[in-house]
Amino acid sequence: HVRHTLVCYEFNHLPSRTRPLTSMAAARRSDLLSATLAFEDPSAFRVKSLGELLRALGIFRLCSFPVLVNHCGKLMSVARTFLGKRGFSLLLRPTVYAQFVAGENEREISQSMEKMSLLGLRPMLAVPIEEDLGESTGEKRYDDNMEAMLECVRMSHSNAWSRDPMMQLKITALLSPELCVKLTTLIAKQPYDLNLVVRAMDGEVFPGLDESEVAHFLCGLQRLNKIAEASVNKVRVLVDAEYTYMNPALSLVTMAMMKKFNKDGAWIWNTYQCYLKDSRSLLLDALCLSKNEGFCLGVKLVRGAYMDKERKLAEKEGCLDPIHQCWEDTNDSYNGSLDVMLEVISQKPERYRIIVATHNEESVRRAAKRMEELGIDKDGGAVCFGQLLGMCDHVSLTLAKEGYAVYKSVPYGSVEDTLPYLVRRAQENRTVLQGIRKERDLLRKELRRRLRLSK
């Protein structure tokens, strides 16, 4: 990440601007909020059809078996071989695909989004493009990906699904992972001035790379520039974090985009993975940088999704494990970063924004409680919540019912295009998928209620 040498004192010692409540009044409000956000009411699922209930129960039951989740990619490959492309699509479309994907074309996506809107949920569209080291396929592929991203901007803005539309963006869909790794190596030796990257977006030569790398980097920045220009004042673009061996380069580019386009509002956001040991310092650096460079900061706060690969890579390279050693440390990291952001938002809500992207109920309750204490509006735009489509609906629907801004990460595309995305998401979120017993129990309660009523 862009390392800022001046760690601003004010972001480590932020004043709390709490409401002047008596201790009894504050306690009553806190108890009421905790009861409201207990996420134990099966009525949250009354908006689902009987088919949707049965589908979710079946899929979540299958996801409770670690062997199925861990080997889902191989299992799907075998199924595709035996059933053929058409048969495999017929199997997946009404099941896994329908649970986690919005649709293939704009008509199907619109139907899904309109239903979501009626439930008080907002879409955060995601083009399911997957690419890692060794998978680069040339400039044409990256240009095609850019066109897909621009279409995502258009759909997010032109359809009245919600106010404040959002979308997700992977920089490695537009810029080769190999170059991102090279940039990360250069940044470790000598941090780059953001202005160099901003000027490179406008076509100026970038130092430290060879001729072919410069040419590709400038093309990648121009692609990102086009997407940012298309989205400003229309759609908020949330840039995904990826692996630690390329994240510093991704953040450098994202911060340059912020400096160029986030002058009057947070249109470009960066993602912070709180399972990383240095996530808190990276967030504080970003806050200092945004203040010193005069741009608005948008933050997507996640726990993280690449733990197994990160640890295996660290062991293979003989490096220190970048991931917190235990779940409790990751929780502390997440909650500490959340508190920092909510404090600065309470001071300057027009300059800072956050999406609390988590399936963890305790973190959601903590965020809601601090919002109440700091006087942050539930739906004022500065703070929102996010979960994946098809998962954690008891949390999403309850939050929406209580008036909070809630987004669902919504992939779309054909079965073939979304399959690699679904496999990776399943494996990255295996602990969440295997631990959704509460959601299954609530689904069963709602199903039993309907069966009793039908007798």
UniProtKB/TrEMBL annotation:
Its EC number is 1.5.5.2. Its cofactor is FAD. Belongs to the proline oxidase family. The keyword Flavoprotein applies. GO terms for molecular function: FAD binding; proline dehydrogenase activity. One of its GO terms (biological process) is L-proline catabolic process to L-glutamate. GO terms for cellular component: mitochondrion. It comes from Seriola lalandi dorsalis. It catalyses: trans-4-hydroxy-L-proline + a quinone = (3R,5S)-1-pyrroline-3-hydroxy-5-carboxylate + a quinol + H(+); L-proline + a quinone = (S)-1-pyrroline-5-carboxylate + a quinol + H(+). Converts proline to delta-1-pyrroline-5-carboxylate. Residues 130-434 form the Proline dehydrogenase domain. It is an enzyme of class 1 (oxidoreductase). The keyword Flavoprotein applies. This is Proline dehydrogenase.
